[in-house]
Protein 1
Amino acid sequence: MNERARVIALHGGLLALLLAGHFVLPAYHHGNLARIMVLATYAMGYNIVFGYTGLLSLGHSLFFAAGMYGMGLSVQHLGYSAGPALLIGVLSAAVVAAGSGVLALRTRGVAFMIVTLMFAQAGYLTVLYFGEWTRGDEGFVIARGARVLWGIDLSDEGNRYLAALVLFAAAMITCLALVRARFGRTLVAIRENEVRTQMLGYDTFRAKLTAVTISGAISGAAGAAYGLLFGYAGASFAGVEYSILPLLWVLLGGAGTILGPFIGTLFMFYLIDLSSGFTTAYMLIAGVALVLLTLFAPQGIMGEVRRRIWGWLP
Amino acid sequence: MELGPYLMLAMLEGAVMASVLALTAVGLSLVFGVMRVVNIAHGEFFMLGAVLAWVITQMVGGPPAVGFAVALVAAPLIVGAIAVAADMTILKRVDYDPERTIVATIGLLYIIQQLTLMGYGPDARPVEAPFNTRLALPWFEFKEGALAMYWPWGLSTTSYKLAVIGAGAAVLCGVWAMMARTRIGLVMRAVQADRDMALAFGIPVERVYAMVFGIGAALAALAAVLIVPITQAHYLMGADPLLLAFTVVIIGGLGSLPGTVVAAILIGLSDGIISVFFSPTLAKILATLLVALVLVFRPQGLFGTRAV
């Protein structure tokens, strides 16, 4: 098999496996996996910026929340139906990402990390400040009637799983096409050596800005879908924690790989799920996982797989 | 009450906050300046200081002043020791690589927070101040051409708050003296200026790093012990000081001690005044955006000399 066929077989195989899961999984894991696929979409969006472009952003909750609130608020206050609301969510996330990207990308390294963190914090506080519309920390429930897309009721569990799978597949195909295209190679070049990339004649600022915008749009799509599928929007999704989680998932699964974010999300979700059976200390486990990861597997699960077995992994 | 006394009250509250903030931020700035490490767990060291202050005062018993005095010495030492241990077991092993230390300190944050929750519980608990006399403050005003002094109702502070301001200033002077006048400070500055050259001259850089990380954490813990009689000890209290300390360190210029102190006073006072007269949330939003923009357009901060 040549590389292209292998890549298609591996990623197509995962999607087929997930589709098969719809028919065979018991209800509990069926529900879990739907949630994991939406969160993994968020992690894949994050991975474009962090894994492939090498920018450590701590502000992606801003884009997730922009998607969620762009969708939720237009349903709640403008009475839009699910389709247009979803679109508004993705668009608002892309706009917010482009806007904050223009400013934040003027800095680099530690400063970039802090600036993105601060933008996200300002966003979180803004959600609290306009509590009259957003209902702040308490959040609001998205009415069942509004969660119908093209006649499909997304609050139904089977439909929810399939919708999450469609979102996940779309994001995965987008990312795969992106990183295998010339543009993706440019991003990796920027990650490895930005000065040299610049000297080769690439407009690295524009490339980074495009990456941030696409990443923001995918994160926003995940946020909007999360709101639609699970029927709730709240300020906690805009908090620092939701910026750190995708970082954790991506690192665990392997930064700069397409499957890494999904593997990482799956692993972390079940690690917490299983451990919460006998302890409530899930944060302790997340913390220990982070520390162990930085110490022993800085490339994450799929990163190690790529290093040792499949050198061709995109 | 007129505007003047109000403003003075707000400024006093702001000064208390500024001194605590300065201590926390100087710790963060020291760690960043010398080690080039962004310590996300700094706020948790602050929280640990406050929680330990409660634990220690409960264990010691007796009059509040005794327990508080013990806490004032012991809590920073314990937190410092924890930080040194964290440095030697984790940060040293990732070789102080900027991105990996950030991730590792995020992990540390979760671990400390969860362990505190499990050991100390989710309640916010008060620590009694060693002394807490109410002091009425006079106000001066021109009345019919003459300067008159009177005591407006409500214009008062407590002796403890004044002591916090004094203690903050004293410790900052101590830190400055350590950096500028002692051999330890010299070694630290040498490592800051050129790590490899310092290593070549036989300075045990790794031990200096461990010590700096410990001192930074101890300063945060000290600040927390000072503030805990005014606020309360809670396992989630680390987030705000972390963000504020970041703000201060950035505005002041990463790694610059005088800049950090000036920025702490600026932020403390303005936060005190804005929160009294306007909405605190709005004040925070504006301050956060302002800081982000300072960093975007002047990455070296107000007093910084080199770009990040």
Protein 2
Amino acid sequence: MSFRFLLRAGVTGGALALLVGGVSAMAGEYSLTVDPVQIDTGKFTRQGIGYNGASPGPVLKFKEGEDVVIRVKNNLSEQTSIHWHGLILPYDQDGVPGISYAGIAPGEIFTYRFPIVQNGTYWFHSHSRFQEPDGAFGAIVIEPKKREPFRYDREYVVQLTDAHPHAGSRIMRNLKMSADYYNRKRQTIFDFFSEAREKGLSAAFDNRMMWGDMRMMPNDIEDMQGFTPLINGWSSIQNWTGQFKPGERIRLRFINSSAMTYFDIRIPGLEMTVVQADGNNVQPVAVGEFRIAVAETYDVIVQPTEDRAYAVFAESMGRTAGVRGTLAPRDGMAAEIPELRKDPRLTMADMGMDHGNMSGMDHSNMSGMAQGKVSGMDHSKMSGMAQGNMPGMDHSKMSGMAQGNMPGMDHSRMAGAAKKADSFYAAGSGLLPSAANGKKFLSYGDLKAQKPLYVEREATREIELRLTGNMERYIWSINGVKYKDAEPLRLQYGERVRFKFVNETMMTHPMHLHGMWSILDNGNGKWNPVKHTISVAPGTTVYTETEVDAPGQWAFHCHLSYHADSGMFRKVVVEGGPNAAAASPATGG
Amino acid sequence: MTSKFIAKAIYSITLSAIIGATSSAALADPGHGKATRIGAPGKVSEAARTIEITMHDNYYEPENISVKEGETVRFIIKNAGEFVHEFNIATADMHKAHGPEMMMMVEQGVLLADKIDRDAAKKMQASMGHGMHDDPNSVLLEPGKSGEMIWRFPERADLEFACNVPGHYESGMVGQVKLSR
């Protein structure tokens, strides 16, 4: 029984809203303290940073339409800040030191005041140094004004993180010293021989030479390994558990608050219906598994019907670690932990060898195409199938049901179906995921806004942002220029900018624009979804559009902590607009 | 009577309903017992009352309905949403079997989020090469459209009214039919 455990019990016992003594919830007053805390993952303990005495901090529950007042007291011996990730608010409340304001000095209280103009699942975190990887994060749940386009009986926040035994500043030093400091999957001479057996000696040798020239490893998918993934602060051993009654619909609000780690999420035995991405409702889509980039959120609805424990399993994209939580009808049950799958290997395609082709890939051309392209259906399998067979048949609905439901269904054809092309991965990418249960794996292409926020219109101009880096020196940049050497990106209030992200590195980057939405151009036209974080895979080009509707100055960066810190970051200045503030960062509350 | 057959039948009748073909009001299931299990189409003259169902994105108003055993009800169904929705009276298992069919119609370009492509439906119907039926236990409506269904409920059944547009049932667009004496 750890110290943190006790603290947590104290916090969760103390209601959800952090009411300032005696003030009613309607006043929308909240208070947070930023505290040094002990982090205990069951594998290691370390000093970290939390809110109200715990990491993760509390779940802040807001109501759409309320004006919130949040008092933040800094109990650290260093400057801190809180950024409300994905919230639309005045720029001086956005919480980025040096852009929105001066930050919060040790011992100081800063009072945030802003209206809540949206609803859904979001999160908050420190935007100072490496406090976020050190534990400074929490969840935000905003209750909508209007009825939601889906129903559920209960809900849980599922906040994922990649707790590391080393402090963030030490990790950064080690990465600077040697970019593969944390890569425990270095290839060995034995790998070389097995590759030679597969491909022939000279091909294996050429392959090695090429990777060697790039000073990269084909298994360099995660910059940082050796972490313990957590759900709401609990490791697999500690087994976070959410209770349910069989037959209930449960809304799970997945948030990826990791410093560096993408997760693939599945619940063996249950189908997940994705209803929200980055806080915005999407047209519901049923999947067997989905990938969550760092800083993204996805809300899913599940309906467990059996009286048993189900595993909520998040496996890192590089397959170096996973975390299991449990959905169970009673406390004290633990679902089985699935095996980690074989680790993926980057391919030539992920190295951008195919760049000329890829950067011409234009998702908007897909709009006229049948959706079948990105759906969980493999048309090539259909031709040989008897009329009565049901391609795309969803077996997960049948779990626990008598097999007799669909006689004539040929399961062998469905299992291990060839991976479908997904334009959000380089053709032939080693990163292309497939669902463990052989069903649909969510693609960016599946995301369609339930109610579009903006009218479709032609962009007024295009800005190309090449995601660049020098892996060897662990310098990350945009258009080859690090943050400290770069001019701010200047946008005009009222324009609609089209961003062209060209990933020229071998890492996947979750790009986060503060203060304004990013409309992902995934070929769905008027239903292109609205997000705050856009993941760009290696060797791909992704387009987004932004209605420039928020005056002031904002941050724009890769949300991998160590990439942002080493230069993949920009200041965005929005010029003009109503009450065009001569962007002067506010100080104090 | 295999459920594969039911599914296939439902699928072709859904298509025919889209195309607007009508024929004898034979239920999808040519086997025995099904018609009495979920009820059967009724006559206007037998319907003593009307229930209005409004379909929104993605839920029904009212959320559940109560009917008497053996009662014949006239349903007036209005789609007040911005997406295509279905009002389909069946058992949970029948809805489960119908879901993949609707998914197939999405994949064939027949069922778009906010409209129904009748040309694609005709093509699909032709390639199915299947006889036409009417589909008395289901009404599929584009945004802004209304439809009606007259249904004679059975003595005893566990029935749901549901929308089998992919994702809609799963996210909660389903209501209970409470049968009482």
